[in-house]
Design goal:
This protein is α+β, with helices and mostly antiparallel strands. Helix content is about 35%, strand content about 25%. It folds into two domains: about 1-210, Chemotaxis protein chec; about 235-315, SpoA-like (Surface presentation of antigens (SPOA)), CATH 2.30.330. The protein is built from eleven helices and ten strands. Strands 1-5-6-3-2-4 form a six-stranded antiparallel beta sheet. Strand 9 and strand 10 (about 290-300) form a beta hairpin.
């Protein structure tokens, strides 16, 4: 494919007259709202991916940059991609997963503990791997639609799933695009997810995607800010998760012997409080990572609900 790409690129790719009619390229550094949408998207994906496996996973927006469609698509040729059409934008977007993403997720979903590197091969993707990619897209796209709706209502319809990515998949001409790269990590393995959005689709809503900070008339003392960062923000804190065991009498505790099994009052779905300085901050679920126990954060502690629960329990004991 690289030879074909070079041949078409050398032949001009896009007529000069078409380039004159192109809208000006977007300045990525000004698309603050789009960056915020992507940051919220990766946070949501980390939570939603617990449906696949009982181990922690994380997503991180690594890049959001301007480029040309042929160059970007060529860099992701060894990937599975979904081609989506947006009627409101009258444009197609590409969402894809590279080979390491697919293999790492399959390894974790089918019981791998991360002690061995994921399987690697340059063979064609199997139907199982294609179905897994489709199910990942079925999580990513609705979440992306929901996050964009307050800015501009959108609906992305899947046109086709490609297991062999061609650099001309967005058209016969090389067009400016916004390329987003999201890093995925699970069990010390992982890969890349990517989104490719034509700039022509975003240009009509560029004002909504740009945001300027409102001036509130106050300034921050840089010396004070540095002290806060060097002091409070970088302080080491000890986190503690406590598993509740059975209630026992003093005689029973004294009679315990080495090798005796104590059954805990919880199962795989039970939540464990994560505490810092005797303050409950998160509710977590017990998991495993590389043959070690781990805690998966489910949600922050609702202090208002805890206060009400303490008041109720206190009144019942009186």
């Amino acid at each position: 494919m690289r030879e074909e790409y070079a041949e078409i690129r050398d032949s001009g790719g896009q007529p000069a007259t078409d380039k004159l009619l192109e809208p000006p390229k977007l300045e990525v550094e000004r698309l603050h709202v789009l960056k915020g949408v992507l940051e919220r998207l990766v946070t949501t994906l980390s939570e939603r991916f617990r449906d696949y496996c009982n181990v922690p996973s994380s997503f991180f927006v690594n890049q959001m940059e301007s480029g040309n469609s042929w160059d970007v698509l060529e860099s992701y040729e060894d990937s599975i991609a979904g081609i989506y059409y947006c009627r409101q934008w009258d444009s197609k977007i590409v969402v894809g997963l590279d080979r390491r993403f697919i293999f790492s997720l399959i390894d974790a979903a089918f019981g791998g503990d991360g002690s061995m590197p994921p399987f690697e091969s340059d063979r064609p993707f199997t139907s199982l791997e294609a179905r897994l990619a489709r199910s990942v897209f079925s999580i990513v796209i609705p979440e992306f639609e929901d996050l964009l709706t307050p800015i501009t209502p959108v609906n992305f319809d899947l046109e086709k799933l490609e297991t062999k990515l061609d650099f001309q998949i967005l058209g016969q001409t090389d067009i400016p695009v916004i390329a987003v790269q999201i890093l995925f990590q699970i069990l010390d393995n992982g890969g890349r997810m990517f989104m490719i959005i034509p700039q022509s689709a975003l240009h009509p809503i560029r004002k909504q995607l740009e945001r300027t900070r409102a001036l509130d008339g106050t300034t921050v003392d840089p010396e004070w800010q540095k002290k806060m960062q060097d002091g409070l923000a970088s302080s080491d804190m000890m986190l503690k998760g406590t598993l509740e065991g059975p209630e026992m009498t003093l005689d029973q505790i004294a009679a315990l012997e080495p090798g005796q099994i104590l059954r805990l009052n919880l199962d795989t779905k039970s939540l464990i409080a994560l505490e810092c300085q005797d303050e409950r901050i998160f509710m977590c679920r017990l998991a495993q990572s590389k043959s070690q126990f781990a805690l998966v954060v489910e949600h922050p502690v609702d202090r208002q609900k805890e206060l009400v629960a303490d008041l109720i329990s206190g009144s019942q004991t009186r």
